[in-house]
Design a protein that fits this description.
The protein is of the alpha+beta class. It has a single domain, classed as Nucleoside Triphosphate Pyrophosphohydrolase (Alpha-Beta Complex). Helices cover 28% and strands 41% of the residues. The protein contains four helices and eight strands; from the N terminus they run βββββαββαβαα. Strand 2 and strand 3 form a beta hairpin. Helix 3 packs antiparallel against helix 4. The longest helix has 19 residues. The protein is globular and about 45 Å long.
């Protein structure tokens, strides 16, 4: 899978901190289509939207992690159509080096979302947008958090790349 982008604190408008040892995290995400709409999660209390997906658990493959995350956050099972790419994030304030693998996928079946307690606390809501409107929405979002700034920049890059495919 090709690396699309590498992000650091400076790229999201924060000062970089020295990091003695980075903690590596692997994540899986999808531009998930349901006909002509894609899934975005609105993080109501933090002021931004994001693609569905998250961390890959120990013992899971990237695709198994993606399948689990999509089921939790959208209630959907999906068919992966192709790879979009990788984005690497150097979040020095947290000491995290995150590698996100993103895929283009389509909904196979729809069920109920099962958000984690922290996602419920942040006010996660599943929304469906055209690809064009999803890109416009992320461009308008003003995240209130450090993480949110990385997420919006990362997911905007994934959406633009998906639009090229």
């Amino acid at each position: 899978m090709n690396t699309i982008l590498s992000l650091d604190d400076l790229a999201v408008g924060w000062e970089q901190k020295p990091v003695e040892k980075w903690v590596e995290r692997t994540a899986a995400r999808a531009v998930l289509f349901k006909k002509d709409k894609i899934a975005l999660l609105r993080v109501t209390k933090q002021g931004y939207h994001k693609l569905p997906g998250g961390g890959v658990d120990k013992g899971e493959t990237i695709l198994q992690g993606l399948e689990r995350e999509l089921l939790e956050e959208t209630g959907c099972t999906a068919k992966v159509l192709s790879e979009i790419g990788i984005i690497v994030e150097h979040r020095s304030h947290l000491g995290i080096l995150q590698t996100s693998h993103c895929f283009l996928a389509e909904v196979v079946s729809i069920g109920q979302s099962h958000f984690e307690p922290d996602e419920l606390e942040d006010g996660f809501e599943l929304k469906w947008f055209s690809l064009e409107n999803a890109i416009k929405q992320l461009k308008k979002d003003i995240p209130k958090t450090y993480d949110g700034r990385f997420i919006v920049k990362r997911d905007l890059a994934f959406l633009k790349k998906a639009g090229e495919l």
